[in-house]
Amino acid sequence: MIDQISHPTGEFMHSVAVSSEGKFTFSASKEEIVKTDLVTGETVASAETIISHVVVSDLFVVTCAGYDDAVKVWSFDLELQTFENEDYDIWSAAVSPDSTTIVSGDGDGGVKI
User: Fold this and answer.
1) Architecture of the 15-112 domain
2) First and final CA of the chain: distance in angstroms?
3) pLDDT in tens, 17-72
4) What's the rounded Cα separation, in Å, for the pair 20 and 81?
5) What is the pTM of this model?
6) Domain extents for the chain?
7) How many Å is the Cα radius of gyration of the chain?
8) Phi and psi dihedrals of 44, rounded to 5?
9) Closest CA to 84 of 98, 97, 67, 99
10) Tens digit of pLDDT for each residue in 82-96?
11) Which of 5, 15, 45, 66 could serve as 54's disulfide partner, Cβ 3.0–4.6 Å?
12) What is d(CA 72, CA 81) in angstroms, rounded to the nearest whole number?
C-alpha cells in the first residue's frame, strides 16, 4: 500500500473517502472526483463536477457541494442520479449501512432524506 496520493489537479481536497473493502480512495476537489487504486496509486476513474463532500457505500458513491444545491449518486465513474434542493446549499451527506437511504444536510440547518 502507498503512503501518499497526490490529486491529479493538485487542488485543495474538500473531502476524501475509502471504499469499504479498502482498495480505493475517492478524493474530491472543487472541480472533480478521482477514484485511486490504493495499491498502485494510479487513477482508476475521474469525473468533473463541483464537490464539497464525498461518501462511499458498498454500491455507489454520493457527492454533494454547497455550490450547486444537489446531491449526486455515482456508480464509481458514472453519474446515476441527481437530487436537487432548490432552496439551500447542500454541504454534507451520509448513506445508511445497507445503502438504501441517503440523507443530506443543507444551509438552512435541515436534514433531508
Assistant:
1) Beta Barrel (2.40)
2) 36
3) 888 888 888 888 777 788 888 888 888 888 777 777 787 887 777 777 656 677 77
4) 21
5) 0.69
6) 15-112
7) 14
8) -95, -40
9) 67
10) 777 666 677 778 888
11) 15
12) 6
Q: Which of 56, 60, 12, 19 is nearest to 38 (CA)?
A: 19
In terms of residues, how long is the chain?
Answer: 113
Three-class secondary structure assignment of 17-46: EECCCCCEEEEECCCEEEEEECCCCCEEEE
The DSSP annotation for the chain comes to --S----TT-PPP-EEEE-TTSSEEEEE-SSEEEEEETTT--EEEEEE---SEEEE-SS-EEEEETTTTEEEEESSSSEEEEEE-SSS-EEEEEE-TTS--EEEEETTS-EE-
CA angle 37, 65, 110 (to 5 degrees): 125
